[in-house]
Amino acid sequence: MVLTRHPDNPIITRESISSSLPELDDVSSVFNPGAVLVDGKVHLLLRVQNRGRETYLLHAVSDDGVQFDIDPEPVVFKGIEEISSPVYHVYDPRITKLDGRYYIMLALDIHNGCRLGLAVTDDFQEYKFLGIKSHIDNRNGVLFPERINGQVFRLDRPNHPMADGPGSGEMIWLVSSRDFTRWIPHSPVLQGRPHFWDERIGAGPPPVKTRDGWLLLYHGVATHFSSSNIYQAGAALLELEDPCNLLARTRFNILEPREMYELVGQVPNVVFPSGMVVWDTDDEGFALPDSRVSIYYGAADTVVGLAETTIAELVRACREA
Ligand code: BMA
Q: Is 301 in the pocket of ligand 1 (CB under 6 A)?
Protein backbone atom coordinates (compact mmCIF):
# COMPACT_ATOMS: atom_id res chain seq x y z
CA MET A 1 0.00 0.00 0.00
CA VAL A 2 1.44 3.35 -1.05
CA LEU A 3 -0.47 5.53 1.41
CA THR A 4 -1.44 4.81 5.00
CA ARG A 5 -4.42 6.57 6.50
CA HIS A 6 -3.74 8.18 9.85
CA PRO A 7 -5.41 6.29 12.71
CA ASP A 8 -7.04 9.55 13.92
CA ASN A 9 -8.85 10.03 10.60
CA PRO A 10 -10.77 12.06 9.82
CA ILE A 11 -8.41 14.49 11.54
CA ILE A 12 -10.65 17.56 11.06
CA THR A 13 -14.44 17.52 11.03
CA ARG A 14 -17.24 20.06 11.34
CA GLU A 15 -17.05 19.64 15.13
CA SER A 16 -13.48 20.98 14.99
CA ILE A 17 -14.75 24.41 13.91
CA SER A 18 -15.50 26.65 16.86
CA SER A 19 -16.31 30.32 16.42
CA SER A 20 -18.64 32.91 17.84
CA LEU A 21 -19.41 34.19 14.33
CA PRO A 22 -22.95 33.31 13.25
CA GLU A 23 -21.72 32.28 9.80
CA LEU A 24 -19.47 29.65 11.39
CA ASP A 25 -22.04 28.28 13.80
CA ASP A 26 -22.68 24.56 13.39
CA VAL A 27 -21.10 24.38 9.94
CA SER A 28 -21.83 21.59 7.46
CA SER A 29 -18.37 20.58 6.32
CA VAL A 30 -14.63 21.22 6.23
CA PHE A 31 -12.52 19.78 3.42
CA ASN A 32 -9.98 20.24 0.56
CA PRO A 33 -7.25 22.06 2.53
CA GLY A 34 -4.13 23.69 1.14
CA ALA A 35 -1.00 22.90 3.19
CA VAL A 36 2.54 24.17 3.63
CA LEU A 37 5.40 23.58 6.09
CA VAL A 38 6.74 26.76 7.73
CA ASP A 39 9.59 26.46 10.28
CA GLY A 40 8.55 22.95 11.28
CA LYS A 41 4.84 23.74 11.61
CA VAL A 42 2.12 22.68 9.20
CA HIS A 43 -0.21 25.46 8.08
CA LEU A 44 -3.52 24.61 6.46
CA LEU A 45 -6.17 26.71 4.78
CA LEU A 46 -9.43 24.83 5.27
CA ARG A 47 -12.46 25.08 3.05
CA VAL A 48 -15.45 25.45 5.36
CA GLN A 49 -19.01 25.40 4.15
CA ASN A 50 -21.90 26.53 6.32
CA ARG A 51 -25.57 25.63 6.21
CA GLY A 52 -26.21 28.52 3.83
CA ARG A 53 -23.78 26.77 1.45
CA GLU A 54 -21.50 29.76 1.85
CA THR A 55 -17.78 29.11 1.70
CA TYR A 56 -15.05 30.40 4.05
CA LEU A 57 -11.35 29.64 4.32
CA LEU A 58 -9.96 29.12 7.83
CA HIS A 59 -6.31 29.03 8.75
CA ALA A 60 -5.06 26.22 10.99
CA VAL A 61 -1.63 25.37 12.37
CA SER A 62 0.00 22.30 13.91
CA ASP A 63 3.32 21.17 15.37
CA ASP A 64 2.86 17.50 14.56
CA GLY A 65 0.79 17.70 11.37
CA VAL A 66 -2.10 15.85 13.03
CA GLN A 67 -3.62 18.06 15.73
CA PHE A 68 -4.51 21.52 14.50
CA ASP A 69 -5.43 24.81 16.15
CA ILE A 70 -8.02 26.41 13.91
CA ASP A 71 -8.53 30.18 13.80
CA PRO A 72 -12.06 31.20 14.77
CA GLU A 73 -12.23 33.88 12.06
CA PRO A 74 -12.08 33.35 8.31
CA VAL A 75 -9.26 34.57 6.10
CA VAL A 76 -9.88 37.96 4.47
CA PHE A 77 -8.31 38.50 1.05
CA LYS A 78 -7.69 42.24 0.82
CA GLY A 79 -8.52 43.54 -2.63
CA ILE A 80 -10.88 40.74 -3.66
CA GLU A 81 -13.75 43.23 -3.36
CA GLU A 82 -12.36 44.97 -6.44
CA ILE A 83 -13.52 42.16 -8.73
CA SER A 84 -16.44 43.58 -10.70
CA SER A 85 -18.40 40.31 -10.83
CA PRO A 86 -20.01 38.87 -7.71
CA VAL A 87 -17.77 36.15 -6.23
CA TYR A 88 -19.93 33.31 -4.96
CA HIS A 89 -17.27 30.99 -3.59
CA VAL A 90 -13.51 31.06 -2.99
CA TYR A 91 -12.27 27.50 -2.48
CA ASP A 92 -9.77 24.67 -2.89
CA PRO A 93 -6.66 26.72 -1.97
CA ARG A 94 -3.23 25.41 -2.98
CA ILE A 95 -0.29 26.96 -1.11
CA THR A 96 3.22 27.27 -2.58
CA LYS A 97 6.29 28.83 -0.99
CA LEU A 98 7.96 30.76 -3.81
CA ASP A 99 10.48 33.62 -3.71
CA GLY A 100 10.22 33.46 0.11
CA ARG A 101 6.48 34.22 0.18
CA TYR A 102 3.38 32.03 0.42
CA TYR A 103 1.30 32.17 -2.72
CA ILE A 104 -2.22 30.77 -2.73
CA MET A 105 -4.00 29.70 -5.88
CA LEU A 106 -7.76 29.73 -5.47
CA ALA A 107 -10.83 28.62 -7.36
CA LEU A 108 -13.31 31.50 -7.68
CA ASP A 109 -16.90 30.86 -8.67
CA ILE A 110 -18.13 33.97 -10.44
CA HIS A 111 -21.21 34.64 -12.54
CA ASN A 112 -20.01 32.84 -15.68
CA GLY A 113 -18.03 29.93 -14.28
CA CYS A 114 -14.84 29.31 -12.35
CA ARG A 115 -11.59 31.29 -12.56
CA LEU A 116 -8.18 30.99 -10.92
CA GLY A 117 -7.39 33.65 -8.35
CA LEU A 118 -4.01 34.34 -6.76
CA ALA A 119 -3.29 35.67 -3.28
CA VAL A 120 -0.14 36.05 -1.21
CA THR A 121 0.71 36.12 2.49
CA ASP A 122 3.91 36.41 4.48
CA ASP A 123 2.55 35.50 7.89
CA PHE A 124 -0.83 33.74 7.49
CA GLN A 125 -2.46 36.72 9.15
CA GLU A 126 -2.75 39.23 6.33
CA TYR A 127 -3.58 38.12 2.83
CA LYS A 128 -3.44 40.21 -0.32
CA PHE A 129 -5.51 39.27 -3.36
CA LEU A 130 -3.45 39.66 -6.54
CA GLY A 131 -6.21 39.22 -9.09
CA ILE A 132 -7.88 36.74 -11.38
CA LYS A 133 -5.24 34.84 -13.35
CA SER A 134 -7.21 32.85 -15.90
CA HIS A 135 -9.36 34.20 -18.70
CA ILE A 136 -11.18 30.99 -19.30
CA ASP A 137 -13.07 28.66 -17.00
CA ASN A 138 -10.38 26.85 -15.07
CA ARG A 139 -9.71 25.07 -11.76
CA ASN A 140 -7.01 23.24 -9.81
CA GLY A 141 -4.24 25.79 -10.36
CA VAL A 142 -0.95 25.05 -8.57
CA LEU A 143 2.32 27.01 -8.64
CA PHE A 144 5.71 25.29 -8.76
CA PRO A 145 7.84 26.11 -5.68
CA GLU A 146 10.76 27.38 -7.78
CA ARG A 147 11.24 29.50 -10.85
CA ILE A 148 12.62 27.66 -13.87
CA ASN A 149 14.87 29.81 -16.10
CA GLY A 150 13.54 32.87 -14.27
CA GLN A 151 9.91 32.09 -14.99
CA VAL A 152 7.08 31.17 -12.65
CA PHE A 153 5.28 27.99 -13.70
CA ARG A 154 1.89 26.66 -12.81
CA LEU A 155 -0.30 23.72 -13.71
CA ASP A 156 -3.97 24.28 -14.29
CA ARG A 157 -6.97 22.47 -15.67
CA PRO A 158 -9.23 24.29 -18.16
CA ASN A 159 -12.89 23.39 -17.72
CA HIS A 160 -15.52 22.72 -20.27
CA PRO A 161 -19.24 22.46 -19.58
CA MET A 162 -20.53 19.17 -18.17
CA ALA A 163 -24.08 17.93 -18.38
CA ASP A 164 -23.95 16.62 -14.81
CA GLY A 165 -22.74 19.67 -12.87
CA PRO A 166 -20.01 22.34 -12.87
CA GLY A 167 -17.42 22.42 -15.65
CA SER A 168 -14.62 19.88 -15.53
CA GLY A 169 -11.80 18.70 -17.76
CA GLU A 170 -9.33 15.98 -18.69
CA MET A 171 -6.18 17.92 -19.47
CA ILE A 172 -3.63 19.49 -17.12
CA TRP A 173 -1.66 22.32 -18.75
CA LEU A 174 1.68 23.95 -18.07
CA VAL A 175 1.47 27.74 -17.99
CA SER A 176 4.22 30.30 -17.28
CA SER A 177 4.63 33.91 -16.28
CA ARG A 178 7.47 36.33 -15.59
CA ASP A 179 5.51 38.75 -13.45
CA PHE A 180 2.41 36.91 -12.11
CA THR A 181 0.34 39.10 -14.46
CA ARG A 182 0.62 37.74 -17.99
CA TRP A 183 0.26 33.95 -18.14
CA ILE A 184 1.25 31.99 -21.24
CA PRO A 185 -0.07 28.45 -21.81
CA HIS A 186 2.73 26.12 -23.03
CA SER A 187 1.49 22.63 -23.57
CA PRO A 188 -0.61 19.87 -22.11
CA VAL A 189 1.20 17.84 -19.45
CA LEU A 190 -1.17 15.12 -18.36
CA GLN A 191 -4.29 13.78 -19.97
CA GLY A 192 -7.22 11.83 -18.57
CA ARG A 193 -7.47 8.14 -19.50
CA PRO A 194 -10.94 7.32 -20.77
CA HIS A 195 -12.47 4.16 -19.26
CA PHE A 196 -9.99 3.94 -16.39
CA TRP A 197 -9.61 5.43 -12.90
CA ASP A 198 -8.55 8.91 -14.07
CA GLU A 199 -10.89 9.91 -16.87
CA ARG A 200 -11.10 13.53 -15.69
CA ILE A 201 -8.11 14.91 -13.85
CA GLY A 202 -6.80 17.94 -11.96
CA ALA A 203 -3.59 18.77 -10.11
CA GLY A 204 -3.59 18.06 -6.38
CA PRO A 205 -1.04 19.83 -4.16
CA PRO A 206 1.80 21.88 -5.73
CA PRO A 207 4.57 19.71 -7.25
CA VAL A 208 7.47 18.64 -5.03
CA LYS A 209 11.09 18.69 -6.23
CA THR A 210 12.73 15.25 -6.06
CA ARG A 211 15.90 13.83 -7.64
CA ASP A 212 13.55 11.80 -9.85
CA GLY A 213 11.62 14.80 -11.18
CA TRP A 214 8.75 17.01 -10.05
CA LEU A 215 6.41 14.80 -8.08
CA LEU A 216 2.80 15.70 -8.71
CA LEU A 217 -0.20 14.26 -6.93
CA TYR A 218 -3.39 14.58 -8.90
CA HIS A 219 -7.01 13.56 -8.60
CA GLY A 220 -8.68 11.37 -11.14
CA VAL A 221 -12.40 10.94 -11.59
CA ALA A 222 -13.91 7.73 -12.90
CA THR A 223 -17.13 8.74 -14.61
CA HIS A 224 -18.27 5.42 -16.04
CA PHE A 225 -20.41 4.40 -13.08
CA SER A 226 -24.02 5.37 -13.50
CA SER A 227 -24.83 6.44 -9.95
CA SER A 228 -21.75 8.39 -8.86
CA ASN A 229 -18.41 9.73 -10.01
CA ILE A 230 -15.50 8.32 -8.02
CA TYR A 231 -12.71 10.72 -7.04
CA GLN A 232 -9.33 9.08 -6.43
CA ALA A 233 -5.68 10.12 -6.10
CA GLY A 234 -2.63 9.24 -8.19
CA ALA A 235 0.85 10.58 -8.87
CA ALA A 236 3.12 11.54 -11.75
CA LEU A 237 6.73 12.58 -12.30
CA LEU A 238 7.58 15.54 -14.55
CA GLU A 239 11.01 16.45 -15.89
CA LEU A 240 12.80 18.94 -13.65
CA GLU A 241 14.12 21.27 -16.37
CA ASP A 242 11.08 21.04 -18.61
CA PRO A 243 7.98 20.00 -16.65
CA CYS A 244 5.86 19.54 -19.75
CA ASN A 245 7.68 16.23 -20.20
CA LEU A 246 5.88 13.48 -18.36
CA LEU A 247 8.35 10.87 -17.07
CA ALA A 248 6.07 8.43 -15.28
CA ARG A 249 2.59 8.09 -13.90
CA THR A 250 0.83 5.69 -11.57
CA ARG A 251 -1.12 3.03 -13.40
CA PHE A 252 -3.24 2.41 -10.31
CA ASN A 253 -4.76 4.96 -8.01
CA ILE A 254 -2.88 5.34 -4.74
CA LEU A 255 -5.91 6.32 -2.68
CA GLU A 256 -9.58 5.66 -3.33
CA PRO A 257 -12.72 6.04 -1.25
CA ARG A 258 -12.90 3.04 1.08
CA GLU A 259 -13.50 4.29 4.59
CA MET A 260 -17.00 5.32 5.61
CA TYR A 261 -16.04 9.02 5.85
CA GLU A 262 -14.81 8.87 2.23
CA LEU A 263 -17.77 6.90 0.89
CA VAL A 264 -20.53 8.85 2.59
CA GLY A 265 -21.02 12.60 2.98
CA GLN A 266 -22.10 15.69 1.09
CA VAL A 267 -20.57 14.28 -2.08
CA PRO A 268 -20.11 10.51 -1.76
CA ASN A 269 -17.06 8.62 -3.04
CA VAL A 270 -14.51 11.42 -2.93
CA VAL A 271 -10.88 11.62 -1.88
CA PHE A 272 -9.41 14.92 -3.06
CA PRO A 273 -5.71 15.53 -2.20
CA SER A 274 -4.97 19.25 -1.96
CA GLY A 275 -2.07 19.60 0.51
CA MET A 276 1.23 17.75 0.76
CA VAL A 277 3.96 18.32 3.35
CA VAL A 278 7.44 16.89 2.86
CA TRP A 279 9.21 16.97 6.18
CA ASP A 280 12.86 16.50 5.08
CA THR A 281 14.71 18.09 2.18
CA ASP A 282 18.41 18.34 1.35
CA ASP A 283 20.48 21.54 1.08
CA GLU A 284 19.38 22.06 -2.51
CA GLY A 285 15.69 21.74 -1.69
CA PHE A 286 15.22 18.22 -3.03
CA ALA A 287 12.86 16.03 -1.04
CA LEU A 288 14.77 13.20 0.67
CA PRO A 289 13.66 9.74 -0.51
CA ASP A 290 12.92 8.52 3.00
CA SER A 291 11.20 11.73 4.10
CA ARG A 292 7.88 11.44 5.82
CA VAL A 293 5.18 12.83 3.53
CA SER A 294 1.82 14.00 4.92
CA ILE A 295 -1.01 14.25 2.44
CA TYR A 296 -4.11 16.23 3.42
CA TYR A 297 -7.25 15.45 1.50
CA GLY A 298 -10.91 16.24 1.46
CA ALA A 299 -13.12 13.19 2.04
CA ALA A 300 -16.67 13.14 0.65
CA ASP A 301 -16.55 16.98 0.56
CA THR A 302 -17.27 16.76 4.30
CA VAL A 303 -14.11 16.16 6.38
CA VAL A 304 -10.30 16.29 6.17
CA GLY A 305 -8.27 13.10 6.02
CA LEU A 306 -4.54 12.58 6.43
CA ALA A 307 -2.56 9.86 4.65
CA GLU A 308 1.16 9.29 5.04
CA THR A 309 3.94 7.76 2.97
CA THR A 310 7.51 8.47 1.83
CA ILE A 311 8.91 10.09 -1.29
CA ALA A 312 10.52 6.78 -2.33
CA GLU A 313 7.16 5.00 -2.12
CA LEU A 314 5.46 7.62 -4.30
CA VAL A 315 8.27 7.51 -6.89
CA ARG A 316 8.11 3.72 -6.93
CA ALA A 317 4.34 3.84 -7.50
CA CYS A 318 4.80 6.21 -10.45
CA ARG A 319 7.23 3.80 -12.09
CA GLU A 320 5.30 0.60 -11.40
CA ALA A 321 4.21 -0.80 -14.76
C1 BMA B 1 -14.49 18.95 -7.93
C2 BMA B 1 -14.25 20.23 -7.15
C3 BMA B 1 -13.87 19.89 -5.73
C4 BMA B 1 -14.78 18.85 -5.11
C5 BMA B 1 -14.95 17.67 -6.04
C6 BMA B 1 -15.91 16.61 -5.52
O7 BMA B 1 -14.99 19.24 -9.19
O8 BMA B 1 -15.39 21.02 -7.16
O9 BMA B 1 -13.92 21.06 -4.98
O10 BMA B 1 -14.21 18.40 -3.90
O11 BMA B 1 -15.42 18.14 -7.28
O12 BMA B 1 -17.18 17.14 -5.32
A: yes
